Amino acid sequence: MIKGLLTGGGIIAAVIAGSAFAQTYPIKPVTLVVGYPAGGPVDAFARALGQRLTEELKQSFIIDNKPGANEIIASQHVARAQPDGYTIFVSTEAPLTQNQFLYKKLGYNPVIDLMPVSQLVSVPMTLAVSPGFPANTLKEFLEVARKRQENPIAYASGGVGGVTHLPMAMLAKNEDFKWSHVPYKGAAPILPDLMVGHVDATILAVSFLQQHINEKKLKALAVYADKRAASLPNVPTFKELGIRDIRANFIIGMVAPKGTPQPIAEKLASVSKRVMQDKSFRERFMDPFAFTEVGSSPTEFSAYLVADRVVQEERVKVSGATLD
């Protein structure tokens, strides 16, 4: 009985200490680790959010880009960092719910080593084809894809097993056509090849493609969202075209090293949500790119990741992607 009281007292003391720590947090600069090079949608959003967190919390939030290996390099770095709230990972779901089904060895365990903080936003993607591709609608695209059995459409993604690879694997399975996967090292190198027709199609973030689509350098066939993107008002959604769900979106979330005090995680989640609900922030950094605010709590994000691992295991299996 006494042991139980001591144990309970220790837990209460830890909670009180964590809460007091969170009240003064942060007292020094915070590093936001991003698993992609500068300039992409995850990096751009992390920088915008970091700037506003700097203003809100009166300490610098510094971006540290650690690109490579489907965010594994960044994940390993964060997993080994001190769990004190001063190293935070701004990531997609790839290192949290996909990589464990893709790689035989990761060097980190997303469940054991990383702590959910918040799912910040959902980022829609769009299916785009080269200007000379003989289809102007998704229906025409599928007709062409089914006919090209001997010369399957060449589909470009930002890497095997990543968030830009798996949606096409699901679309091909659901709509019964063959395709040839052409993986690139990230999204940026895809654009010049797609524009001149070296590859036929890609599915990438609306924010990354919209300028090239509006300039007629690419053709957009469908957007994955509940409603049309404000920046691409003439492009229908997969849903309104009656296409089965292919999850052509990705999330941007925050995680921390396991053991980071829960009150700090809750504070980061709460302040980030407040930033995203600010009209000026939304108008500049979210609405133009069709980002959907989520702003979940650590508990809600944890539940989301548990459910998403089931979905991603099936998607990886359908894609046939396996990596060493």
Automatic annotation (TrEMBL):
- The signal peptide annotation in the UniProt record is none
- Which CDD domains does its entry note? PBP2_Bug_TTT (cd07012)
| Family under the similarity heading | Belongs to the UPF0065 (bug) family.
Organism of origin: Acidovorax benzenivorans
Q: One matching Pfam family, short form?
A: TctC
Return the SUPFAM superfamilies for the record: Periplasmic binding protein-like II
What is the protein's given name?
Answer: Tripartite tricarboxylate transporter substrate binding protein
